[in-house]
Amino acid sequence: MDQYSGEKRKRDGEEDGSRRPRPSSSRQTLVRLSRAIVEIGEPSRYSLTETVSNLAHGLSSIEEDDVRGGVLSTIVALVSEQPQKVSLLSAAIQVANSTTPKFGQMVVELVHSKIEQFISEGDWTRVKNFVRFLCTLAPIVDGTGIKDFLLDLVNRAVQIQQNNSERDGLAEELYIIVLLALPYYVKAGEDDSGKLDEGRVADSEDIIRASREFEIKPQDQQTKILAPFMALREGQQVPFDNERFVVLVQAALARVVEDQWLVPNLMNTSTIVRKATGGREVAREEGESLYHVFPAVKMPEELEGQGQFRYPEYYFRAYLPTTLETVPAPDTYEAVLLRDVGSELIDKMDFNRREVTRQLITLDLFFASSAFADPGIPLDQLQDPKYQEEGRSTWKVEDVAIEAVLNHLFRLPSTVHPQVYYHTILTEACSMAPKAVAPVFGRAVRFLYANVDTMDVELFYRFLDWFSHHLSNFGFTWKWNEWVDDLELPDRHPKKVFIRELIENEVRLSYVKRIHETLPEQFLPLLRDVPEEPSLEYLEEGSPYNELVQNLITKLRSNTTATAPNANNDQTSTASGLPQRENASRTDGLSDEEQGAMLEEIKDKVTSESVGGRADDLDEKETLLLVATICHLGSRSLSHAKDWVSQTKGLLTKFIAESEERKNHVISAVLHYWRDQPKVGLLVLGFFVEEGVVPESLLVRRIVESDDLLLTSHGWSQLVYIVDGSDSETRATYVTMALTSISNKLNSLTDGTDEESKGWMNWWYAMYARSLCRKYHSNLGSSEGLSEQVQQFFDQARAL
User: Rounded to the nearest 5°, which phi and psi values hold at 535?
Assistant: First the structure.
């Protein structure tokens, strides 16, 4: 009771004493059916047959139009996002069709309309999923509609490719869509003994014959530039052949045809349908038909879109067979199907990474029970001779799932989603099933690390970023002792670089003392003691510039106080009351005379302390003093650094004037101040570029000409960030600048350098050139002046 009014308090949401209305029965029905559709096949207290029967009963009992529309929308979402479930969903629809043929007809019409819609939109990945779903519905489709449509797709693929002298990505997409769907078409209607429908087998044979007219174009140049691993040094070997997905699909279907269309690892949902219907064929009102016509699909004369095959799609591997096979061989139907389904889950469900992870590590639920080993089974148990004698599967669903994610993370020339998305999926997998997934992770990391000396440099840094991120989520623990012997390798060896950069990344993600506790003693020399904040040498006791720098700091800080937003000054304000950017970026409070006096004071002090010094040296010293002081004022955080560069822009611009030499000195000063944290130094330099103090081109030139910057993860990432953010013309200029610099470095490796070090420097330069050519192939200009090795990458990239 309300202690003041004596009346009973209302519940949240009540108005005029009435309670919030309960959801309508139709709404509750829609929620229940939608959940049943989305969760079909997942662990349940019901058997698969009971699950399918229950869903079918709900589907066949729908009376309200809004419920029916909501259910059909859910079906569209499921087929688009979770294609591994289409067989079970189809089974439920077939059972519902046996009692309510109108619902089956609506689904067939829905599939037809969606296929036409997605074709017109050029959304070929969704076309692929709906074609596969259509093939599972073959038992309730009358006539030759499905066969005619598949033949039309194949013939269009053949025609498009024949009209092009080069590989056509859309033609490959159409070809793959049909070939991946055919086993589903044949499998539909399989009896309990495994006997297939002869009519559908004959249809599929006709389609395969037509598909043999499709010519897969050789892609030697593209293969070289897109390969994840490359043997650049004599005696090196890549871990696996770079195999194109379309070639593997073709080989896989050839094996399926050779095996009389038997794919025992696909789930036999026809048996589930027969059990759920009690074996009855018809149960309908007079005049109704259990079978529905799939009309001809209207296809535009000119098809739009390139799908996922704009560039050749390659099959990345991380679990190569040693003593046993934990993933299907790449040229099997199961391998290409699982890779395709995993890719669809990852690409289409990026809005829910936890659900993506859960679906990936339970893919085995949607295949025959004998297709995979038990989830989480240790590798030792699979290697037991007794286990192998039983002839049971050694495929691990965890291996399949993780390899599918790594395939996306290491895709060239670029990833579909931001790399951190794939990091989070891998982290979620470890969190959801640590005992099952952690050993799988370990094997993948060991494989990748063992091959970093042939790994593309861009993938090298992706691997470094991912593994750093992963360790930060799991206490920075790793079996470092496995890598102890590699500490003896040359400093530029990729394995040594990987270890060193990994430790530096860990420090950035934590702090030195924490990382010190996780490293074995042998690795501690690589752990640099990074001070909590950089020291300004000119403020040290005994420095002749101590008093000068103290005065500069005092004047600049008082200037900031005088121009704070709350101060009483004449600053122009925006509607929000915040100072405008253009005013905040000036050294307000200091007149031109005061700025001049400050700069003159710096010059006089440097001159008096360097009597007889060269003018260039004096100029550099003045720049170091001024810029180091500004960096010191902004050293608390990146936001402070950005603010101080903005605040002192006027002073810096007045000092630098039009002198390119002084602008170069500014770059040197910032990098010197942040020498213990060079990544931060490059980020701070970005603020000087933003404010127009230093031109971007000078920073690019400094990165590409300095090995201490270029041959590091932070130097590479800053270079890519700048180039990516440039317009097309500027991008071409920067890429040419970088390739020319690398060519000069390759040509200038002297005989005085020991052969081992020389070989690895050559490796880094060549890998950088390869990556730049590939990433910016559309911005490549003239190849004049490039070294022979860089010229090869240039030509390969042009083939893209």
Answer: -95, 145
